[in-house]
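Thread: "does anyone have the structure for this chain?"

Original post by V.I.:
We have the sequence but no experimental structure in hand. Need at least a predicted one for the grant figures.
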Amino acid sequence: MDDDPIDPTRMRNQPAFRTSTGTEWIVIGLVLAGISSAVLLFQDHATSDVVAAVVIALFVAMLVVRLAVPRRRPRVTTLAVLLALIPIVTIAELLALIAL
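Reply from O.Q.:
Generated one for you, C-alpha cells below.
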C-alpha cells in the first residue's frame, strides 16, 4: 500500500507535481525573484548586487528549464528546486548582512 502511485499524501503525488505544466511555477518565480531582487538592490552593500544577479539567474534558469525539459515530472521538480533556492539565497544574504 505504500507504493500506491495515487496516494495524495505523498509529496511526489501532489497535484502541483502531477498536472502542472510549469507556467504557475514561472509566475510565482517571477514575483518572488522581483521582490527578492528589489529588497537586495536596496541594500547598500556590494554583495547584495551580486546576490540579486544570482536571484535573477535562478529565475532565468527556471525559464530555460520550462522551455527545454520535455518530461513533466523532471521539469516541475527542477522548477520547484530553483524556486526554493530564490528565497534561500535571499535570506542567507540578508542574514549575512545583519551579522556584519
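V.I.: this helps a lot. The chain has one domain: 21-99.
O.Q.: and The CA atoms of residues 64 and 93 lie 25 Å apart.
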